[in-house]
Amino acid sequence: MIKNLCKFGLAAALLVSQGTAVFGDQHQLDKYGGWKEIRGTETGFFHFEKIDDRYWFITPEGNAFFAVALSHMLSGESDLACEKLFDGDRYAWHKAAYQHAKDMGFNCALGSATSPERNLNGFVDVEFAESMFREDNFPYAVGVILLKHPWEFVDGETLPDIYEPSYKALIESRAAAVCPKYKDDPLVMGYYYGFGAFNHSDAWVGHHMSMPPGSAGREAISDLLIKRYDNDVNAFNKVYGLSLKSMADLKDKHELTYEKAFDRRNYPAIRKTLDPRMLADFEAIISDMCIRLYKIGHDAIRKYDNNHLIFGSFIKEWALSEDSWKEVAKYVDLISPQHYNEHISINDFGDAVNMPIIASDDYFGFHFPGGTGTMHAALVSHDARGEVYRASMYRHLKDRQMIGVTYCACMYDQGGNTLEKNLQNGFIGLDGKPRTSLIEAVTRINHEIYKHACKPGDAEEMKKLHDDLWGKWKAYAAKRKRPNQH
Question: Is the pTM above the cut of 0.90?
Answer without folding.
Answer: yes
